[in-house]
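sorry to bug you again but im stuck and you know this stuff better than me. below you get a single protein, a line of residues and a line of whole numbers that encode the local backbone shape. mainly i need to know what kind of three dimensional shape the backbone takes. anything you notice is useful, everything is just below:

***
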Amino acid sequence: MSLVERLEAVIEPILARESYELVDIEFSRVGKHSYLRLFVDKEGGVTLEDCEHISRTVGAYLDEGDLVEEAYHLEVSSPGLDRVVKKEKDFRRFAGRKISITTFAPVEDRKKFSGTLKGMDEGKVLVEVENVTYAVPLEDISKAKLALEL
């Protein structure tokens, strides 16, 4: 299990108890510094105060449990309007929205899909691109982001 997977397993229930959703988690190194980034959401959206609260709560828990062996900076933010979509429930939730999907391997001879999210069907994400609906297996998706709608 990777560090991100271990952290996700610990952080997700902490946030869920307070009605927050862990949308995404990233751990990266830039030069000598490491960053743990949490992208969280809740009904009605998250505020700066929510992010500060989560940072204190999760930070204390991670420090106490010594779950990250190296020094790191914890950053908590909203997923934004162009949020990452990873979970099956979110592909259903955001049906009707514009989405960009990239796959690990070609699906019907393409790896990039930009169109309208139609939902899920039997483990496949349905996306309509230029009046053609593609069924992209969820496990083949390397990245999926909602498009900004202005």
User: Anything to note?
Assistant: The first strand starts at residue 21 and ends at 30.
